[in-house]
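Next comes one such specimen:
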Amino acid sequence: MTTENPVLETQFPERPPIPFLQKWRSFGTGLGVEVGSQNLEFILTSVRPNGIRVIDAFTVLRYRERPAAEWGADVLAFLQKNKITHMSAAVVLPTQDCISRSIALTGVPNSAVDAAIRYQLDGLHPFTEEEATHSFSRLQAPRRSSFALGIARNSAIEDYATLFDEAGIDVSSFLTPAAAIYSALRILQQAPAEQFLAIHEDESGLILYGETNTHPIYCVRFPENSDRAVSSASSQIRLPEDAPVARLAALLPHAERLEIGSPLSYAASLAGALPAQALSMNLLPVDRRKTSSPWRWVPTSVLLILLMALGLAFAFYQDYENRRLLTRLDAEIARLQPRIDSIKKLDSDIASAEKKAQFLATFSSYPQQDLDSLRELTRIMPMTSFVSRMGLTRAELTMTGEIDQSMEMLRMLDSSPLFKDSEFTSAPGRTLTGKEVFQVRAKRELPSAASPNPQAAGPQQVSPVGNSTPLPRIAPPPPLPPGLRP
């Protein structure tokens, strides 16, 4: 099979659609540069979920023969013409200045990948350890156990980095052709096939790119007019006989609808537009990388805003929870308030009823206390005495009557346990029969509040006349509640 009659793209298997999330986060603009033997190919592309648009292209002729500042000014004018104020370029290095390799590290943890690659690095390039620099990146599924490796001389990297610095062009990455093509083939589409071979011809010869089970990523340049290039590459990567072969430009996304002069610069622009979806391989030293479009900071800014919002949410979460709990408690209190009011009213009614019942229980003891006082008077009064008028209240006793000796009357009242502080309310007089008329007043000795309830103790017994044993004290009555009268 020769390059003059490659297999048509229609013979490739139908590609499944890319995941929805990957498609709708495909936003970016990239500037791709292909470093040729004599010229620099610039291409500016815009990537959106609905497709890819080539904004403009520009070629710098004989860049080695011209001052870098001169053609750098032309490139900046090219960007300003397309209203691009700041754009970092993704540069594809020439195949003669870099080496592409693939290495399988099955079962090696991520923390040991760098050491494992460095251990095998000496056998993958002809340079000394001090002369070479390398970069690697894990391939996408289903070959996650394999890594793409790019190797280049330090002198070549320094030369190209200085060249673009003198031209005033910011560079974000130096890519190998294999890394640029691998990444571009997976922008807004799946890989063309599990195993395939792509061909690209330029003024320097033939570039063959392939992916097989034994060589997950393969890219090599053959000299011009090499008829056996395809068969040699197919044998080297063990490409199956039925595996499709096509031109590289036909496999790149939307390339058939776009006018692209250089497939490699177009692939680099796609990789630069969506660096998150491309291989992370980059041969440019970290301290010389320049950031690209300000849009690359949008995800970081959004993440920072989300983190700030999350922090504020945590800060005010407790206060929010307290307010929400108080709102629920207020609603529950409002729902139960009628029952609470009803219970309070019942408690008040019960307390009032208990107070009235206690008063009635005490009031029921008044007749017994009065009878005890009358019996006590009957006991202490001599048979020859006579009472014409008597008043008995809860506080005192008043009597008017006749007795043989009025002073004896005071002594008898004071000696009784039911009376005290007896006194005459008027001077005693004498009747025609020789008896003395008295008018006395005495305070009543009622039982204290600490004494037991007279009803609980049973009826009180009055001592017979002449018995000086004191009667039990009865608790004084409590004050009358409102609305009741004795």
In short: The mean pLDDT is 84. The domain at 366-457 is CATH 3.30.1360 (Gyrase A; domain 2). The first helix runs from residue 20 to 24. The two ends are 132 Å apart (CA to CA).
